Amino acid sequence: MSTFTIFLALIVVVAFLLIVVIMVQNPKGGGLSSSFGGGGTQQLGGVKKTTDFLDKSTWTLATLLLVLILLSNVAINRGSDSIDSKALDADATTTQPLPAALPETQDAAPATSTDESTENK
């Protein structure tokens, strides 16, 4: 398993977790932060602490996702060539085959401009 594959798997997991954390939040003050613990004054951690946890986890996962994406660029296997594109290589010449010449047919008569309909009248 290559390093890039490991980074790719981590990126997918972190992106999924980030989606879950964002979907749990509600910008109007609802969501998990308002319904966590069942209600009343006996909430586990309280609404404020749940909102702080979701906010911190969102920023942490977003930062981790950005770092993993940048590190995965370093881990890409580029092979032995230092130039990725042949368009950037000045020494590379590409030759395209010329289209084959159409065979001339001698069965076809040359076009004439005689108008037979006017001569027959």
UniProtKB/TrEMBL annotation:
It is a multi-pass membrane protein. It is found in: Cell membrane. InterPro entries: SecG (IPR004692). This is Protein-export membrane protein SecG. Involved in protein export. Participates in an early event of protein translocation. It comes from the Bacteria. It comes from Thalassobellus suaedae. Belongs to the SecG family. The keyword Signal does not apply. Keywords: Cell membrane, Membrane, Protein transport, Translocation, Transmembrane, Transmembrane helix, Transport. Residues 94-121 are annotated as: Disordered. The chain crosses the membrane at residues 7-25, 58-76.
